[in-house]
Amino acid sequence: MALTNMAPRERLDDDRDAAQSAVRALSAAMVILVLAPPGVLPSTAKGVVVAVVLIILATGLWRARHLVRVGRASFLVFFASVAPLPMLLTYGDFNGLLAVVSLTALSVAVVQCAEIQGERGVRTLVRMLLGVGLFELVVAALQAASGSPATWGYLGDRVSAVIGYNPLISIVGGRALGTMGHPIPLGMLFSSCLVLVVAGRAWLSGGERLVLFAAFALGLGLTGTRSAVIAAAVGLITVMITRAAGSWSHAMRFLAAAAVVTLLAVTDLRESIFFQSLDGSFSVNHRLSSIESVAHLMARPVLEVLFGSGFGSATELYARGILIADGQNAIDNQFVLAMAAGGLLGLGTLTALCLLLLRRAMPSLRPVLLSQMFMLVVFDMSAWQSSWMLLLVVGCVGSAVDREVEGRPSAVTPRGGAAEFARTSRKRRS
């Protein structure tokens, strides 16, 4: 009998070791992307960083290759990336082609590494995320104290008046960039950590959660990113509603009803009282202009409406007057960017990906995922690899494993032969 059970037990140990190799590779890749974000580096250094990250992820996946399954999330991530390719040669450029290839490879590798994680992998990723958040908090505090951004920052020494003023904590002067090179991705990291601290009761004690909540709330203030504060509020409200309603489905019905009421209240965005109070804000007006560009995007030729104008076509779309120019050549809305680059096909794929991630995410991580998805409407997340990968990790981690008790990461068992052995062992014990 012992010899009969030896093979399944060895497979179980091998599965766990392989998953740990993948999670170590994923953690290392995420740390590198945060400390040296490719989006703010010179082209040569950018290529080196992306290549190193891909090698690390490929090494981890090779060790866990027998666990890898090509699921719907991987397919949608791949399809969302390649959807604009039919129009790339017409309106895009070679740099756009390189960007889509590297983003697709990174996205698929991250999804595969995250999906196969069990209990230990989830805990490792949570510790990694909180550890990176605390490191960025130290960097942000040093920047606030010294008044200067990191030398590799997105804006470097050319800090404009918009970035130079912190609307949340005016006494510190400017908005901290961290090592991420821009306050918006840094704010998304802090808001994700903040919601994770509140939602992740299974991973942290009460005292730890209190201290970390205060720390990441300070980090949010140092970034001066109002959209990240709203994203954190979305996540925290979701946590409270979910716990009060007792189930995720009840919470989603409440949120859907609240969203409809809010939409009816602000049908004309520019005439609403809330947006009138922020009418002088360039940030708000710029994002409203991006939303208003949707009508122009729908007026493009039929092929562009369906397949988009390709990656790297934003400059051309601004020149043609399709995207509303306001002095800043960034769309700052991932859904509008998907429609501009990939047309209705790209927009539909991104929407389907978001719905799939919400459906498959661990219940304790769904509030974090919702807060991150709010950020999709305020900046071009796919242009910041660290933020895009963070979204995919939170949405996919543990999604390809069997959960004995929904919502409890401690009850995660890998699928396959090891899972069959675990189920057989439980039947024998009973």
Task: Give the strand order, joined by hyphens, for the main sheet.
Answer: 1-2
Overall average pLDDT: 76
Provide a count of the helices.
19
Write the H/E string, N to C. Answer: HHHHHHHHHHHHHHHHHHEEH
Compute the CA-based radius of gyration: 22 Å
Q: What form results from the Cα inertia axes?
A: globular
Distance between the termini: 18 Å
According to DSSP, the number of beta strands is 2
Unreliable parts:
1-6, 152-162, 402-430
Proportion in β-strands: under 5%
Question: Main beta sheet, described?
Answer: 2 strands, antiparallel
Class by SSE composition: mainly alpha
Please give the domain count.
1
Helix content, binned percent: 55-70%
Which terms would index this structure?
2 strands; mainly alpha; globular; disordered N terminus; 1% strand; 430 residues
Describe the protein.
The chain has one domain (2-429). Helix content is 68%, strand content 1%. Strands 1-2 form a two-stranded antiparallel sheet. It has 430 residues and is an all-alpha fold.
What's the short version?
This protein has 430 residues and is mainly alpha-helical. It has one domain. It has helices spanning 2-35, 43-63, 72-82, 88-91, 94-115, 119-146, 161-164, 183-199, 206-223, 226-245, 248-265, 273-277, 282-297, 302-307, 314-319, 334-360, 366-374, 385-396, 417-429; strands at 401-403, 412-414.
